[in-house]
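Journal club side-thread
Mid-discussion, someone asked how the predicted structure for our own chain would compare to the paper's figures. Pasting it here so we can look after the session.
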Amino acid sequence: MGAGAGVAIPFHGDFDFTPFTWDTGVRVGLSEHVLVEVAGGESRHTRRRVETNLVANGATIGRFEQITTHAQRFAQVNVLATGATGRLRVSGGGGVGLLQFARRTETTTTDCSPGIMCGVSGSSTSRISGSVQAVGGVDVSLTTRVALYGQGRFLVPLTDPGGSDLRVTAGVRVGLSPAR
């Protein structure tokens, strides 16, 4: 079992940010050089916009605040080729999965002059796509059951390949049985 954190690098032009990402996974050895990995994770970014004394239709909004959260969640199954020498293990491969895109926006307006209705409004969207991905990384064993890792995951949604991203994470793997 492993868990890590890092950053996602989105390739879609609408995402002009580098969100925090986390992932977790379980790897099972099928042979000395083949692993099956079941993994999941999320990248998330929240943007906050605040403006004061906005003029709209001749009236004033004293305070305008908008919070938008973008999240991408994934679940995937990968087949990885692997090899080890000493304390170092290298693995790489790919597989299929599901990728969910979600966006939530909440807008709050206060201190409005007559003719402007203040309040809170929100909207959200979510869609799910099949995905393919490539995974590669390096593990360094600290003990027979604990390793540190660094890896990259390149995720490609099948419905919108332009929405691809590269997730770079580092973390810890704990083996339920000693490493080979």
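Post-session note: Strands lie at 2-10, 20-31, 34-56, 59-85, 88-112, 119-141, 146-157, 165-174.
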